[in-house]
Design a protein that fits this description.
13 strands; four-stranded mixed sheet; 368 residues; six-stranded parallel sheet
């Protein structure tokens, strides 16, 4: 087994999360990495990042914020990345790295990263050119790996999709069937390629140009336990039996709080550049959010046997919201607001009412 990681995605989130964690694990003497970064999308502003990453030089990640009331401001020179490729210009090198050099893969391909393209169904997977969508590219890489001997692979997706590993595995299995891939390949795909379910959490507020990122102290990479060996140990990496409690805490406390504040920001027609920290400097709005957490959110979690966990997470969330170094703009949070309210607020109330049909949440209800 090799310890190289192939990483699909160049985002500043990955720089301040997976890349940083692997760097710190390597400093601690663990045999994990290094990382090959692959740019999977056409165009955009990521070409400059790939150019710098190709040098293998360390890049800065600045950790700024509050942790247990103490201010933190430190810069880490992350040195875990030593290779980088653009999938559209360097496909043969990507195939070689995936097939020969890597037994661990990670991805962070954005909100639409798992979407298939209509042309994928007609793609010739024996072609020397990459397919259009990320799942189709991954299927082509997996086919090449299978035909080269089929070593097992651990895939750790970090997209913000519930049960992301199961979702990606199902997309690939269906695509393999739809495109007529051999039965022995599909058996190998289901048996020897492990797609773990994971949950990630860290606010990465700004880039450092041309490469690097500014992030808060809080970080989490939770991975659902499975029949695989964890590639690294790190204080912010957890192996858990069930991701749902962590997903509920993040979605119905952190994300719900963001949407509550964004809703108030839009209704009041407040300053376009206002941040989460800035709006909480308004005492009336701070009291409103506190009341929603205390009178509606925590009682909802209590119905599910999670009151203590919810109270701790609320305290951590409010500290994160008041990070003096974080410029988290409400205009960004307010995008796709209706869909976010459905996932964060409506789903929370429905979840609480599974245990108590008469559960009351008047302030949250007013948002809808």
């Amino acid at each position: 087994m090799t310890h190289r990681i192939i990483q699909f995605g160049t985002s500043r989130f990955l720089q301040a999360h997976v890349d940083l964690f692997v760097h710190q694990a390597r400093l601690a003497g663990q045999d994990v990495g290094p990382i090959t970064v692959v740019k999977t999308t056409l165009g955009g502003d990521r070409a400059g990042r790939i150019t710098v990453l190709k040098s293998g030089a360390p890049f800065p990640v600045r950790i700024r914020g509050l942790s247990n009331g103490a201010a933190i401001d430190e810069i880490v020179a992350v040195a875990s990345v030593d290779q980088a490729y653009d999938v559209h210009d360097e496909w043969p090198a990507v195939v070689h790295c995936f097939v020969r050099d890597s037994d661990i893969a990670v991805s962070n391909t954005g909100d639409r990263g798992y979407d298939l393209a209509p042309v994928d169904a007609a793609h010739n997977f024996a072609s020397p050119l990459p397919p259009r969508s990320f799942p189709a590219k991954l299927l082509a890489l997996l086919l090449a790996r299978f035909h080269a001997g089929g070593r097992p692979l651990l895939f750790l997706p970090t997209e913000l999709v519930s049960r992301n590993g199961d979702r990606l595995a199902a997309i690939l299995s269906n695509l393999a069937a739809a495109t007529g891939q051999p039965g022995d390949f599909r058996v190998w795909l289901n048996r020897d390629v492990t797609f773990a379910n994971t949950l990630v959490d860290r606010i990465v507020s700004a880039p450092i140009e041309p490469i690097g990122a500014v992030a808060e102290p809080y970080a989490l990479w939770a991975i659902e336990r499975g029949v695989f060996a964890m590639p690294l140990q790190h204080p912010d990496v957890m192996v858990v039996d069930d991701l749902e409690p962590l997903e509920r805490l993040k979605l119905h406390i952190l994300n719900l709080g963001h949407s509550v504040l964004a809703d108030r920001w839009m209704r009041d027609g407040r300053d376009a550049s206002e941040t989460v920290r800035g709006i909480l400097d308004d005492p009336a709005i701070a009291r409103m959010l506190d009341a929603i957490y205390e009178d509606e959110v925590v009682p909802g979690f209590a119905l599910q046997g999670m009151e203590a966990k919810a109270r701790r997470y609320v305290a951590t969330t409010l500290e994160r919201f008041r990070n003096p170094f974080l410029e988290h703009h409400l205009s960004d949070i307010a995008q796709n607001h209706a869909a976010k309210l459905k996932n964060r607020v409506v789903a929370f109330v429905s979840w609480a009412r599974e245990r108590e049909p008469n559960f009351a949440a008047p302030r949250l209800g007013a948002l809808l």
